[in-house]
TrEMBL record, chains A, B:
Family matches, as InterPro entries: LysR_HTH_N, LysR_subst-bd, WH-like_DNA-bd_sf, WH_DNA-bd_sf
UniProtKB keywords: DNA-binding, Transcription, Transcription regulation
PROSITE patterns membership: HTH_LYSR
CDD domains for the chain: PBP2_LTTR_like_6 (cd08423)
Name the record gives this protein: Putative transcriptional regulator
Native organism taxonomy: Bacteria, Bacillati, Actinomycetota, Actinomycetes, Micrococcales
Length: 325, 325
DNA sequence: CTCGACGCATAACACGCCGTTATATGGTGT
DNA sequence: ACACCATATAACGGCGTGTTATGCGTCGAG
């Protein structure tokens, strides 16, 4: 029945003492005020102004509206300001979820970058494996997830989730082979042929990584003998170092938690996991989320972290494989 | 940029958890909500809801709007309620101004009637002679004035004021003649011929009453010898009782402040003053003012006060003139 | 796994609010 | 008395905001 515009007009009339004054104060024409008051009067059913001669005065009801205008309009301004602050990156919150090995360098650097640029954006971080982080995204429990997908195999499986989500590629993470130093292939150069490891004992990582291992070995023509499974890649490397088996291990993990007692080599057929940022189409357009996303992309693209992701294979420098030697 | 309707929608979405729920809660159709949200989003420049699958969730900005909605809308409701109370006679104030001799019976009875019917209407009363009360009306210092005009002569003079004001006739007040008991005409019956008093000493009342005296005497063919002037009709009657002169005195005054030591008789040519309620066209439509006006009219029309005003002369009962005898 | 129900988005359309300019009317002061 | 100033009215245009009809995608159940 009564809206903010009406209150604004009534307040301006009270302050200016005339329709014309109110009109100029609000940037309207005089008839606009005249009609607005008339509409308000026939809505409320009672006169709001007392027109005597060429002067207008507020009636009791009109004065009541003008008096309430301050309360309503300042509350409205507060609401607008809060939204404007969120839109203008002067406020806001981003709930980020990432898998453990991304938490080491990628996420901290991105968080620092966002904090640097927009000190008023508060960022919270949760560690979660891709399946859970995407579930959290869908459940509205986080705004941005750093996840990975193994190129080729379970990308199709993820598409079930990814169709309603938007993804931004961050890094291409080469999958390498970890061998005990005593292994017969530990001292060669170049890539190790996966088929040469058909009879090895295998140590698998997280469930998805295990799935990828099975896929790759299948392509190489054998089924791996998986002796151990653990999500902890420190443990994986420990197991390998102890000579209990070999393991596929992503480059990013090696770079962050490297055990000097294992040998890392490239493997053929080459394989990688794609690390990407995931969010919903709507959240993608939230300025704070967009800023965090861009920071992630920048950090991922910076040469002091890892090779850029979307470039073609030729432009990607060879991974330094001499971790050990 | 943001209006109350938008906040109402956002709050409903927050409470109901879906567009459809919000729509039914607000009595709208579902697309109305959908479009409203879209408009708000493109106005604020940031997503307000996160649509994932067939569920919607508020973003931070949307939640901010929903959170502010309570403040704004309750303030708006308070404003509406206050106006509604004024329109519904559950609140309000009427500032009444009346000339002294109306304050005796007409005004108190009307005030009592209003208080009876609408206990929450506060009425204030100021005593003022017609010129000042009309000035107060024009100056916005009162809402309703009880004034009088002498029929015929200064009605034209008042029209200058009365054109922008609206009047409601209340009473016709016969103008009578007050004589000392010792006067040669004190014992007759019927009306006294004004021309028979051409050589008397005259006592005049308020300035407007004095003007009316001059007009009447002029019509009767003489110019009165005005010996005293006072606005106090108690004094007028005292002067007459002391034999210092004769005076024209309205019936209403005699009825309220009658000095038994004077004789009151009708006079020819007959004359009267019209007592009327005056306000502005706008204030006339303010419910509280209208209620006060109606109360005044009812009191004026009630037979236990004085004869009705607008009736023709035939229907007006003869004034009781035997105040003294 | 398919099907039906549910919820949001979009299209097309109608109405009324709310501005505008042009003009009339009436009060005020020199 | 006349010019100025303030409000009222008329006519008109835009768009905000509702409607119904319809499509599409998702979630749950047989």
């Amino acid at each position: 029945m009564i809206d903010a515009a009406g209150l604004r007009v009534m307040r301006a009339i009270a302050e200016q003492g005339s329709f014309t004054g109110a009109a100029t104060a609000l940037g309207y024409s005089q008839p606009a005020i005249s009609q607005m008051v008339r509409r308000l009067e026939q809505r409320t059913g009672t006169p709001l102004v007392d027109r005597v001669g060429r002067t207008v005065r507020l009636t009791e009801a009109g004065a009541a509206l003008a008096r309430h205008a301050g309360t309503v309009l300042s509350a409205l301004d507060a609401a607008e300001e809060e939204v404007s602050a969120i839109a203008g990156l002067r406020a806001g919150r981003v709930r980020l979820a990432a898998f453990p090995s991304a938490s080491a360098t990628l996420v901290p650097k991105a968080l620092a970058l966002v904090r640097d640029r927009f000190p008023d954006i508060s960022m919270t971080f949760t560690e979660a494996e891709p399946p859970e982080s995407l579930a959290a995204l869908r459940a509205g429990e986080c705004d941005l997830a750093v996840a990975f997908t193994y190129a080729g195999d379970d990308l199709a499986a993820d598409s079930e989730d990814l169709d309603v989500l938007v993804t931004e590629p961050l890094l291409r993470d080469e999958v390498l082979i970890a061998l005990p130093p005593s292994h017969r292939l530990a001292r060669g150069t170049g890539a190790v042929d996966l088929a040469d490891l058909a009879t090895e004992h295998w140590i698998a990582g997280c469930p998805r990584c295990r799935g990828h291992l099975l896929t790759m070995c299948d392509q190489a023509g054998f089924s791996p003998d998986v002796s151990f499974e653990t999500e902890d890649y420190v443990a994986v490397q420990g197991l390998v170092a102890a000579g209990l088996g070999v393991a596929l291990i992503p480059d990013l993990i090696v770079r962050t938690t490297y055990n000097p007692d294992v040998v890392i080599r490239q493997v053929t057929p080459a394989s990688r996991r794609d690390i990407l940022a995931v969010t919903t189409p709507d959240l993608r357009r939230v300025p704070a989320v967009a800023a965090a996303l861009e920071a992630l992309a920048e950090v991922a693209a910076s040469p002091d972290l890892l090779p850029t992701f979307p470039g073609d294979a030729a432009s990607v420098p060879e991974p330094e494989l001499d971790y050990h030697l």
